[in-house]
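quick q for whoever's on today - can somebody do inverse folding on this one?? i tried earlier but teh output was garbage lol. tokens:
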């Protein structure tokens, strides 16, 4: 992803993915609320906040003036939701019948998404011309 065109395509896909994922928090909130560990307060509110953050972050990476703060916000969000993903891997996800190995296998994808946000929105490209 070294040329500006591929970075632009990557950012566009990233933005759309986060916007759609965020909208899904409001379309089917029960699925997301069921992911939130029981020791977290106000699961419905946390679902709404994280959904709104995904929508705003996804839109923000598409707007050059907002790209950097939106990218840092998405990285913070990805780190913030990791405990819920870890809780699901440790305790299962009663709402969905997903095999335990799949819940564990999805954990590294948080790092993949963080890298994707960083690489397409924050990483400074160097001029490689001689």
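ok took a stab at it. sequence:
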């Amino acid at each position: 992803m070294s040329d500006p065109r591929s970075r632009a395509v990557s950012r566009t896909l990233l933005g759309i993915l986060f916007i759609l994922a965020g909208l899904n928090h409001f379309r089917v909130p029960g699925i997301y609320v069921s992911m939130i560990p029981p020791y977290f307060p106000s699961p419905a509110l946390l679902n709404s906040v994280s959904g709104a953050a995904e929508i705003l972050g996804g839109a923000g990476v598409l707007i050059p003036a907002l790209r950097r703060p939106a990218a840092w916000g998405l990285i913070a969000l990805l780190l913030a939701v990791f405990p819920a993903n870890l809780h699901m891997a440790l305790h299962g996800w009663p709402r969905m019948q997903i095999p335990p190995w799949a819940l564990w296998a999805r954990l590294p994808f948080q790092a993949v998404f963080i890298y994707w946000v960083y690489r397409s929105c924050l990483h400074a490209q160097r001029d490689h011309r001689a």
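fwiw The first helix runs from residue 4 to 27. also Residues 35 and 93 are 7 Å apart (CA to CA). so keep that in mind when u check it
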